[in-house]
């Protein structure tokens, strides 16, 4: 950059130092005119230092060249963002007139031109103009993308189904080759958009949703976005990316989101400690899609601070979210079956408390279960692993079983299973009577023609067991009352009413 007298030295953000003519630059820039005023260079060059100049030395030099060429430097999509922000900082009105005129034509720019300008918005993020410029550019970018997809064959949308793989094609068939080409046409923009910062991608996604862009394609992009960007991102960046993805997924049509993918995000979220709000949204989405989950999906390891083997509380929250969605019929039965499998899987965990196990057993309505076979198996394993349960805890767990929903074989097994026998009551006469009744029933020979009699006898046997448990519960309550009464009498001389025997 040449001039007859370079009497002004400008340091741009410590990147570069330029030597300019004070008279020329002050003729265009109100900022320099106010800074330098009537100062002279009689004692050497004047020096100006900028520490936060938007766009750095590149944008400053563009505006300086405009001034030196007497306004003949062309403003175009490739430089408009840098020149606009620099001119705003330097208060060069002639440049601003041209940049604003150029931005009015943004809808007619090509896709690469818009994308390049958006990347430049990241370079001038310190400028107060950057956000408004990015908004205009992003609106034009999304409009261009929507028009492109609308012109694609409508059948191609199926290529982005959450249940399909975009890269499993056979080259032997023309139809599958066409399917592949349709997919590529719909997703050509994925990699190009990834050059933008997480903040601009978030703006891009919000606009796509507001324009009612195909939710299947948005969902595909989000999974691709996470996979690619996580390779080189820091923990903070990963957290920001994942929170943006979750915020977008939760406003999409849930049928467009693969359940397996949500559980993948869940495992990432647990490791990144994302915000509580984002985690709640993710749990709600998984809960709404719980009927699509598998047992492997639910077997999430417990947080490091917990002694449990699996994250039981998480599954409880998923199930409650599903039930709050008031889904019934086949979906409810599928979830009920899934939870029963999960209960059987976690039952052997020696650290699983009785209260938590009971919460799992009573999580889904009993009407959703056609059979209690899985529950019986789970309780049997739980009692095996938790031999130190109190009578009350043992009774609470056993009482969740429904006699009517067990097979004849299981009913017989329960009656002879010592783990299902609550500690004997002190009433020896009652105990003897129960044993005699059970022995009598065991001696009865059941023929193939007396199935009803068999069911009736087994029912009596089951009710005897329930009576025994109820009696034990009452005895435990009496013991507690007696202990309280004894403790109270030590500190109070007043007489207390006697308990009825």
TrEMBL record:
Pfam family, one: NPH3
Annotated keywords: Ubl conjugation pathway
UniProt pathway annotation: Protein modification; protein ubiquitination
Protein name as it appears in the record: NPH3 domain-containing protein
Record-annotated BTB domain positions: 6-70
A GO BP annotation: protein ubiquitination
PANTHER family: OS12G0117600 PROTEIN
Domain NPH3: 187-435
InterPro entries: BTB/POZ_dom (IPR000210), NPH3/RPT2-like (IPR043454), NPH3_dom (IPR027356), SKP1/BTB/POZ_sf (IPR011333)
Highest taxon of source: Eukaryota
Organism: Capsella rubella
Gene3D superfamilies membership: Potassium Channel Kv1.1, Chain A
Family classification: Belongs to the NPH3 family.
Positions of the UniProt region annotated as Disordered: 481-501
